[in-house]
Amino acid sequence: MPLNPFQSRMPVSPTRRRTLGLLAGLVAVASVATLRAETIPVVAAGLRIDEGEVLLSAEFDFALTPALEQALDKGIPLYFTIEFELSRTRFLWFAEKVAQWSITYRVSYSSLTRQYRVASGPLGQAFESLDEVQRFLGHVTSRPVARVEDVAKGVRYQAAIREKLEVSQLPKPFQINALASREWQMTSDWHRFSFQP
């Protein structure tokens, strides 16, 4: 009789141990793959100079997940942030950040007026349908991100843009849901493109 009552009577063979390890690894990889965030694809992004300013225009293929739509309809506000960076690469040195810009939108739904509201700071706009809200959140049009004096003519710059759901702004119980379900995580990867004034 073994000294430890929890010890198995049959020794585990090295092949069985490898097989169990492989299965455990596959389960871990599968669970991480399912927890990946829903992506917000960047359709197009570009910069242009007009009236002394560098203007950003971008388009995202923005669509809320069913879980986020349901939360919004139940009165839970959602926060989305669009971030932009413009940098100049330098030989044998870190890239120099020339400009940085971000904006956060608070999206809410009022069941009393049956309208969606998108606000940034004290300014807001009302929308009749969720499709209009998604179109609004998916477009950045001629947004000033830098002054023309900040960029040198003929120099190549690297620009990057992304949009993401601010999970930290959700109520605490929904933050826990966001850790376990990819429907509660929306983000785009950094979309990088070149710009030369």
Structure description:
- By secondary structure, the chain is of the alpha+beta class.
- The chain has one domain (about 40-195).
- It has four helices and eleven strands; from the N terminus they run H-E-E-E-H-E-E-E-E-H-E-E-H-E-E.
- The strands form three sheets. Strands 7-6-5-4-9-11 form a six-stranded antiparallel beta sheet. A three-stranded antiparallel beta sheet has the order 2-3-8.
- Strand 4 (about 80-90) and strand 5 (about 95-110) form a beta hairpin.
- About 20% of the residues are buried.
- Mean pLDDT is about 85; it is low at about 20-35.
Features:
197 residues; alpha+beta; six-stranded antiparallel sheet; 23% helix
Helix and strand pattern? HEEEHEEEEHEEHEE
Task: State the helicity in percent bands.
Answer: 10-25%
- Number of separate strands: 11
Give the count of structural domains: 1
Low-confidence stretches: 22-36
Mean pLDDT: 84
How far apart lie the N and C ends?
82 Å
Tell me the Rg in angstroms: 24 Å
Query: What spatial order of strands do you see in the largest sheet?
Result: 7-6-5-4-9-11
Count, helices: 4
Shape: flat
β-sheet strand percentage: 35-45%
Structural class: alpha+beta
Summarize this, please?
By secondary structure, the protein is of the alpha+beta class. Helix content is 23%, strand content 44%.
